[in-house]
Amino acid sequence: MTRRLRKNLMSVALLAVFGGVLWLCQDFGPRARMIPQPLAVFGIVLTLIQMAWHSMGGEEPPTMEMISVDAGAIPEGGEGRPREERTEEQLGRWGEAGAFAIVALLVAMVFTAGIFPAVFLFTAGYLILSRHCTPLRGLAWSVAMTLAIYLLFVLGLEMQVYHGLLGQWLG
Amino acid sequence: MIDAISAGLLALLTPQAMLFMVIGVVYGLVIGILPGLGGVVAMALLLPFTYGFDPVATLALLLGAHIATIWGDSVTSILFSVPGSAKGLALCFDGYPMTKQGKAKRALSASATGALMGGIIGAIFLALCIPLIRPVILALGPSEYLMMALWGLTVIATFSDGSLMKGLIASVLGVLTAFIGMDVVTATPRFTFGSEFLMDGISFPVAMIGLFAVSEMMKMSIRGTPIIDRSLVKEDSTVWQGICDAFRHWWLVIRSSLLGLWIGVLPGVGASVAGLAAYAQAAQTSKTPERFGKGAVEGVIAPDATMGANEGGGLMPTLAFGIPGGESMAILLVAFIGLGIVPGPEMLTKNLDIVFSMVWIIVFANIVVTVIGLGITPWLARLPSLQANLMVPIVLSVCFVGAYATRGRIEDVLVAAVFGVIGYVMDKNRYSRANFVIGMVLAVMIERNLHISLNLYGNDFLLDRPIALAMLAFVVFTAAMPFWRARRKRLTAAGGRA
């Protein structure tokens, strides 16, 4: 996917979100939509300006020459290659799809097996499959970590344990 | 007053009170480092243990825990760019870049020392201001708070990651996200799609866990390398450098502390706004603002000093009027009632010794936090160099358990994951996640105060409130200043070329 296509897709997604907000606001009373409605319009205007700027070939809309803050950026004095290129270069074995799959897998495991079995299976699986350590050490690490989280959250913070759909099914 | 100051100190210097304070501090540090669990959770969990003990010892436990969570939040923000709660957000901006440059020890120690200095300055000014602050608080109403929140939104421009347009879009998205759920003013369910879960709105800590922690772990799993590769970046800073930094920037510390004290005094504004405002003022008043966001130590010192002082300020309306300065102060209010302490003007006359005990607790708790913090900094600084294959499963697991623990709703795990993906996409396309969060923080404050102002003073409420009008002028001025500065810079550059 080219950079321009990705930017346009992002803008279209944003327009859909703001348009959806505008549409949903019609059902609210005047007080309830007093702020969301004009904000959605403002969002649409900003996105359209952004799209127009990109279509005219601009890299980024004009910056304010103020402070460039990026909580996740690699700080190299603002120099160096754009982050997109760096990320592409640094793709690991699984890549982006793998990262999404990891998150989806953990969520699915939490919902089906419950919190602590999911934590144990996920950490053990990750450590062993990524070959970070031997299966035995991976299992030992996972047991230790699951136990630590259990002690901290359940015994220390009195969190109610979620047993998952399987737990409910098994009674 | 001198009697009250010494009586307050003597009440704290008992073995029980000191022990409770140290327990509170250690407990608070652990809670602060966990994602999603901040000072509010720490204090709420301690409430059952507050009955039957000496009031000062109980307050030492609660306030000690609360103060320690602030630095605990800062640790994860600096080391992993994962704020434990909204308070720690401003620390990500320069703390994390410092970590990536091999200056984690310096950032952590500057943060701890800044918080200590802020806490002490805040406590001193609190003690001095006790007789003066009452008329000031009473002069401010919802219209003035609305202007303050608007000022916060205009300051957002400062945080724009390169593109102002994208920064504003991210803020708008954040504000709209905060409106998901039941509108408390009109009792209208907004953007809930009939879901009972969404009626409660999006939990702020859960959104933060997703936007920062989950998305960072996604990035790390893609890269497959640790946050810091020690073969490329050596940790070449020392704890002492950070301590010296905080003292060298003493004027910034004083300014930030006074800002924190002031924001703390205002009921309902909160430390999250204080940290961001401190960062903005540090950047705006710096002679070299271009260093901010790239590892400027002032960007670490200012928010921590502000948050340190903020706690002292937050005590003021809680004690004097029974109006909590923030969520954690609301929990403290519950503890007061349990202890038989009735907040109100009498606190500043009859029970002044208890007030000064709390001032002393703030001072001593800050000292204990800093001593422990500086002691463990060398070990903490090693964490970012842990292997990605070890970090990703551990942090992701803790994040999802933390998201669930926030409200005990399993749906929050899904929300954290969704916000993780949103955070990843935003970061990849350079839409500032920080702006999104700031929008979320300020949205509720803006809407609530706008509605109250309209109800109280009508559509022309600004004309009825001269202070609010003056504040609006200030908002316009601060919003226009960056544009004016940019224009002047361009003209100077053009003149130089000519």
Task: Characterize the structure shown.
The complex is a heterodimer of chains A (171) and B (498). Chain A has 171 residues and is mainly α. Chain A has two domains: 1-61; 95-170, no CATH class. Chain A has helices at residues 3-25, 36-55, 83-89, 95-113, 115-129, 135-156, 164-170. In chain A, helix 4 runs parallel beside helix 7 and helix 5 (115-129) packs antiparallel against helix 6. Chain B is an all-alpha fold. Chain B has one domain. Chain B has helices at 2-12, 15-33, 39-46, 55-80, 89-100, 104-129, 133-139, 142-155, 164-178, 196-199, 204-223, 239-248, 250-265, 271-285, 298-321, 327-339, 352-380, 388-407, 411-428, 433-457, 461-464, 466-497; strands at 181-183, 188-190. Chain B has a two-stranded antiparallel sheet with strand order 1-2. The mean pLDDT of chain B is 81. The interface between A and B is large, with 80 and 95 residues.
List the helices and strands and how they pair.
The complex is a heterodimer of chains A (171) and B (498).
Chain A: H1 3-25, H2 36-55, H3 83-89, H4 95-113, H5 115-129, H6 135-156, H7 164-170
Chain B: H1 2-12, H2 15-33, H3 39-46, H4 55-80, H5 89-100, H6 104-129, H7 133-139, H8 142-155, H9 164-178, E1 181-183, E2 188-190, H10 196-199, H11 204-223, H12 239-248, H13 250-265, H14 271-285, H15 298-321, H16 327-339, H17 352-380, H18 388-407, H19 411-428, H20 433-457, H21 461-464, H22 466-497
Antiparallel strand pairs in B: 1-2
